[in-house]
Amino acid sequence: MGGYSENKTRSAEMRARTIRAATQNWQAAMNSTSCPTIEQLVSEKHLDPGTTPLDAWGHGFILECAKDEVYVTSIGPDGKPGTTDDIRIPKTDPN
Question: How far apart are the C-alpha atoms of 88 and 74, rounded to whole Å?
Fold first, then answer.
């Protein structure tokens, strides 16, 4: 059972990194520090249309753009934001 959970965690981290890179590319292309939506990233071809906007547990990713950094968060298996099972890429604190 632990391996299955680890696979889901790795999958969520990989998807978050993909979304983060697409967001950074979007910001560079738009010369902006604002945060796009995942739908914008897909419609403007910064993310492949086949990229799922959901984490491994079926929750939407949270995009946060602050202080010249892009954070992508999965609320993890418990489905509650701000808990210890959240997955944040990069792992640093945005505050």
Answer: 6
